[in-house]
Design a protein that fits this description.
124 residues, alpha+beta, 3 helices, 13% strand
């Protein structure tokens, strides 16, 4: 499989003389052009993807907690987990946990919303 298309090829053929050749046409011959493929789009896209994926690794946001560096998303996810557990205890204490149609989905949404909100407020 070829990734890049060759340059445009022009073939000259005489009426009734067999296969096309690459020579200078005379005034009785007609010029036909073969259709060309688009230029190296997959090669260019893969090179662009490789360059853009390595440029984001220069510095990741991390927090120093008790002498160890943790990724910031992990700290935000832990905060979202704690808030989801607190919401479960609050819903259970008020009796609303049995009224919620899908408690797992609701608590997961509360945790995700808290995680993303912490990320936006703290690191944006």
């Amino acid at each position: 499989m070829r990734w890049c298309a060759p340059e445009r090829s022009v073939f000259y053929s005489s009426p009734g003389r067999g296969s096309p050749s690459r020579r200078i046409p005379s005034h009785t011959e007609r010029v036909t052009e073969r259709p060309t493929q688009p230029p190296c789009v997959p090669g260019i896209l893969s090179a662009l993807l490789l360059v853009s994926s390595t440029s984001g690794c220069s510095s990741s946001p991390s927090r120093n907690i008790l002498g160890s560096y943790f990724p910031s998303w992990m700290v935000c996810a832990l905060g979202g987990l704690v808030v989801a557990l607190l919401a479960r205890f609050a819903l259970k204490a008020t009796g609303l946990l049995t009224e919620v149609p899908a408690p797992l989905v609701v608590l997961l949404c509360i945790g995700c919303a808290t995680t993303f909100g912490l990320w936006l407020l703290w690191l944006a």
